[in-house]
Specification:
Length: about 150
């Protein structure tokens, strides 16, 4: 089998991001592969502590919020020495956009974190699960445990 040539790391909101990122980086080094990263902005509910409600993050969110999201992605990109052209941040449903960019950019391995959910969360499906079932390329699901960094 020939090695991987283009690896795409899906950067989520989890506190385990570093662990997944390091796995992707070491795979890219082993295979001498191009490494890209992607973060998809979806409607994440942001708690509004003043009113006890949630505010959806969307196209109308403040520039500061979007800048903060971009800064997080840039930080990961810098840590992993990913070329600027290979850092993707876009709006949409994470699983769909990740698969779309993977196909567009001819990615042959997607790396995601996976919590191994059970019960209701499993029935509802996770981003990792969905990518695993719908991507045309290989997918590496990095198992995440509570308490890891
Ligand atoms: P989740 O199913 O949301 O717990 O996320 C599992 C994995 O999917 C994360 O570790 C990321 O690799 C990826 N992921 C989740 N949400 C996003 C997102 N908004 N953008 C990019 N990747 C994501």
């Amino acid at each position: 089998m020939s090695g991987y040539q283009h690896i795409l790391l899906a950067v989520g909101y989890s506190e385990h991001g570093d662990y997944v990122a390091k796995k992707a980086k070491s795979l890219a080094s082993i295979y001498q592969a191009k490494l890209s990263i992607i973060h998809v902005l979806d409607n994440i509910p942001m708690p509004d502590t003043n009113y006890g409600t949630v505010i959806p993050l969307n196209q109308h969110s403040s520039d500061e919020l979007l800048e903060a999201e971009k800064a997080k992605l840039m930080q990961v990109g810098d840590q992993l020495a990913v070329d600027l052209a290979n850092r993707w941040m876009l709006w949409g449903v994470p699983k769909q956009e990740i698969i779309h960019i993977a196909e567009q950019e001819k990615v042959d391995l997607i790396v995601v974190g996976s919590h191994g959910r059970h019960g209701l969360a499993l029935l509802m499906g996770s981003t990792a699960n969905s990518i695993l079932h719908h991507a045309r390329c290989d997918v590496m699901a990095v198992r995440l445990q509570d308490g890891m960094r």
